Amino acid sequence: MSYILEALKKSESERNQGRVPDLGQQMRMIHRNRKRGIPAAAWLALALLVNAFVMAALFWPGYGFWSADPDGAGEVPVTVEPARAVSPSTPVAADEPAKADDAEDPAGPTDMTAASGDRGVEGVSAEVVRSEAPTVIVPTVRGAPYQADGATTDEAWEGRVPHLVELPMAFQRQVPDLVFNSHVYSDDPWARSVMINNRLLRMGESFGPLRVELITEQGVELSMDGQRFRVGVVRDWSSPR
User: Fold this and answer.
1) DSSP 8-state secondary structure symbol assigned to residue 93
2) Which residues neighbour 59 within 8 Å (Cβ) at sequence distance 6 or greater?
3) Are 215 and 153 in contact (CB under 8 A)?
């Protein structure tokens, strides 16, 4: 009985093939299970793993294809030049008499070497002492300029030295104008100086017909044609006309 029912259903389905289904007909949907493939995460992990192996093979230190040269491959060979033989500057024939002299006096070279060594040690020690010794500068004591070249001094000039205004008018007219720019007095005669007409003078020096005999605390003593006179430095001197 069941066999007959199945045959009827089969024939009914064969007749219904090719027909357009209507609204009243029940349709039967058959769903087939899809085959599950490999997920995308697995493919991504596999790609990263392959990439890591490739990078390691290329750049692994010491073993990769693009790594540095193996040990000893990058070292530059060092070439050691052989030492050049120093040729004697004197000919062999000239050495033979020296050898004969050495044979006659075997103690000569030893004595000369010892003497040269002693001289070398003495020279080095002398240079060390000379470099370490301080330099002592001794100032040269210069004599008073007014005592040289026959200059007169206080003891040589007898009597009171007159002032220029006390001398005759004819003598005063011969004395040129005097402008005192500066006056320096000190217990040391060499440190004394006076500037007359923009010229620095010391005792014993001359300018024109006048000669500086002595620089005093109040002024200066000059001489002209053997006549000595004094002038104060407070006021300039103008020759009378």
Assistant:
1) H
2) 66, 67
3) no
* Nearest-angstrom CA–CA distance, 79 and 59: 33
| CB-side neighbour CA atoms (13 Å) of 119 | 6
> E strands along 9-158, which residues?
none
Residue with tokens 């007909």: 25
pTM of the entire predicted model: 0.36
Where along the chain do its domains lie? 164-232
Q: Kindly report, residue by residue over 11-70, the tens digit of the pLDDT.
A: 777 776 666 555 555 666 665 666 667 788 899 999 999 999 888 888 887 766 665 555
Q: At which residue do the structure tokens 């004819």 appear?
A: 170
Q: Where is 181: in which H helix or E strand?
A: strand 180-184
Q: Which token pair is 151?
A: 């200059």
Maximum separation of any 2 CA atoms in the chain, in Å: 190
Tokens of 18: 């090719």
Task: Return the amino acid letter for 124.
Answer: V
What's the CA dihedral at 156, 181, 206, 149 to 10 degrees?
50
